[in-house]
Amino acid sequence: MLKDKNILIGITGGIAAYKICNLIRLYKKAGANVSVVVTPNALNFVTKLTLQSLSQNEVYSDCFEIDEYKPEHIALTEADIFVIAPASANTISKLANGICDNLLLSTACAYQKQILIVPAMNTGMWNNKFIQENLVKLKNSGYSILSPSEGFLACGTNGVGRMREPEEIFEETERILNSTKKLAGKKILITAGGTKEKIDPVRFITNASSGKMGLALAQQAQNMGADVTLVSTFKAHGFNNIVTETAFEMEKVVKENLKENDCIIMTAAVADYRVRNYSEQKIKKDDSDSMTLELVKNPDILKEISEEKERPMVVGFCAESENLLENAKSKIRKKGCDYIIANDISRCDIGFNTDENEVYIINKNLQTKHLDKASKQEIAKKILEEIFE
Ligand code: CTP
Fold first, then answer.
1. 85 close to 169: Cβ distance less than 8 angstroms
2. Ligand 1: centre distance to CA 331 (Å)
3. What is the pLDDT of residues 41-73, one digit of tens each?
4. Could you give all domains of the chain from N- to C-terminal order, each with its CATH number?
5. Which of 9, 53, 204, 322 has the greatest number of beta carbons closer than 10 A?
């Protein structure tokens, strides 16, 4: 599975760095090409010569060592996977905040494929609120985290913080690289965010959708090898991104791109109505105690594309505050899409504007699969695995 894969290992300053020698051997034995980038502190724990001899490759540590014509951090980003192990609390926090003050961090910042983070640290550091917040931030941005195990630590105590064994890191690398091929060759268009329907130049009608679920789907689909177009109501980086504001604009983009995609996922919360008469000038308040806005129906994008004769697979989302399954099943019939993903927006721990979700995947035959509460990234991955099975 790892034969001829290009694996980039990033080593930071931690005692577990010595175990990476064994990890390099495992990758090499499996036929992979291994490159190593280290932070300056990593070299206090393991020597460049050891890493060079085991990887049979140059070991990079300096941002300003320019070989041939490519800056190193860009040349290194061509690897198939970037495994940062051990990942120190310092590096984790810098990664989560876009800090690039060494070659490893600059490389990670520029890297666009899967990054696997394998933390190792003292229990107190692991439990530190800021470290945990930074790990959540990384997880929500699509990084894979192989959490530390519990056991004897180099500082002489027992607790959580031990880096996972090289064999486990090896298996996780295989698992990630395996999933990166699952959607190779597929083109997927995903909509995300809540549309904005203008009232006048300063006011609009919108909804509570944050776009996080759509963003997680786009991230995971890309990680699984798909060619993704994200049509969103906000600017998103790292994707082929088309920004739209209103339901009308979104409808136009989705329809224009319908036939060239293998799948359309309508995660966006599209406003059902827009204001009948948009005011070119800011509406002034008058003496009356009330005002009436007349609304007219927007196109139902999901329904319209599902009715097309020649169309790709179409997946809808359904946000319900009551009778979740009943409403979701009637919605899939009404809209005519292939799958509907139902989430309960009456709960404040999942759904709109949260980092977690719990959903039901319903197919055309009304067969239902429940996905337990998990991060939106994990839910996204499971949804993609299920619909493309
Ligand atoms: N949708 C759409 N166009 C609309 C409204 C919704 O394409 N004008 C899509 C959404 O992107 C989502 C699905 O339809 O995939 C269901 O959205 P939801 O808001 O749950 O349902 P509605 O059709 O708006 O029905 P209701 O508001 O009555 O529940």
1. yes
2. 9
3. 999 999 999 999 999 998 999 766 655 556 666
4. 6-179 (3.40.50.1950), 187-387 (3.40.50.10300)
5. 9
